[in-house]
Amino acid sequence: MNAARIRHTWTAAVVVCLMAAGCGKREAHEEEHEEEHKVGTHGGSLVVLSDEAVRTAGIAVDSVGPRPIGVVVELPGEIKLDAEQSVEVRPSYPGRILRLHAGLGAFVRKGQPLVAIYSNESLSEYTIEAPMTGTVVGRPVNPGAAVDPGSVIYTLADLSSVWLDFPIYVRYLGSIRRGQTVLVRAEESPGASATGSISYIGPMLDAETRATFGRAVLPNADRRWQPGRLVTASVILERVTVPIAVPEEAIVREGSGAAVFRATPQGFELQPVTPGRSDGVMTEILSGLEPGARVATRNAFLLKAELEKEAGGHED
Questions:
Q1: Which of 9, 119, 135, 192 could form a disulfide with 95 if both were Cys (CB 3.0 to 4.6 A apart)?
Q2: Is residue 127 helix, strand or coil?
C-alpha cells in the first residue's frame, strides 16, 4: 500500500514537471513571437519596426495628397567641356619640344611653366607658361616632337563647371525656352543627378537631324560629370498639380511593378501602386493610394531590403 502511494506520488510529480516545462516553452515562444513583431516582417508584405529603429534608419513618413509636379520631356544629352573655361596651348614659334612639365590630369596654376621649346628661328630655348589655372585634359605631343603655331601642345580646362548639350527637335520648338529647369541624370549611376537652367538655345536647325540644341551650365566641383559622358536631360516644360503624388524615392520597384510602403498601426505594409507622370523628384500616383494615406517617403529601400532579407531567410 505504501509502495502504491509512493508510485502514485512520483507519477503525479512527473506530470506536473512536464506540464510546467510545456508552459515554459509556450511562454518563451510567445515572448519570442512578440519580440519578432517589434522588428521583423509579417505575412511577406508587412515590416514591423520599433520607433527607435525607424529613427535610426532615417525613415520619414508623410501624408499623400495634391502636389505640383513638372511636365517633362526626356532628351539624350552629352557632357562637354565649358569652352568659356578652357584653352588650347600652342607655341609662338616653330621648333622642337625639349621638355613637358605637366602630364594628363595634372592640376596647374596660371603662370606655371608648361613646356620648353627649342626655336628654329632664334636658335634658342623658350618656355610657355600656363595661361590659366585648370586641369590638363589634353596633351597630344611628346618631347622631341616638331611643332608650329598651329600645333596644340596642351588643353587646359576649369572643370568646376561643364556644359550639358541636348537636342531640341522641331516638335519642341517654342516649348523649350531659356531659363527653364533641366534635370540631368546618368542611367548607369542612379544616384548621379543635378539640375541646371537652360542658358542657350541654338538659332538654327541642323539640315540632317532637323533639330537645334540647348545648353545648360552644370556645377561640377566634385568632378562627377566627366566631359564625354552620355546622360538623360529632363526638361521641365510646365508645372501642374495632380491629386496624389509621392517623392520618387518613396517608390520601390518589385517584379510585379511599382509599390510604396503604407504606414499602418501594425507596421509598414507594401502597397502596389500605378505611377503616372514624373519630373524625377515627384511622381504622380494614378491608383493604389487615397488622399491622406501615410507612406514612407525617405529610405523606403531599407524597408524593401528588410522584406527581401526575411523572404530569403524563410526560403532557407
A1: 119
A2: strand
Helices (H), the chain: 2-36, 51-57, 300-315
Residues listed for the chain:
316
End residue of a domain, out of 135, 157, 179: 157
Of the candidates 185, 209, 239, which is a domain's last residue?
239
- 9 within some domain: no
- Other CB atoms within a 10 A radius of the CB of residue 213 amount to 18
**Distances 132 to 101, 114, 146, 174 between C-alpha atoms, Å:** 15, 11, 24, 38
Helices (H), 154-237: none
Let me know whether 257 and 137 are in one domain.
no
Residue 100 φ then ψ, to 5°: -115, 130
Question: By residue range, what is the domain housing residue 151?
Answer: 83-157
Q: 97-119: per-residue pLDDT in tens? A: 999 999 999 999 999 999 999 99
pTM above 0.90, yes or no: no
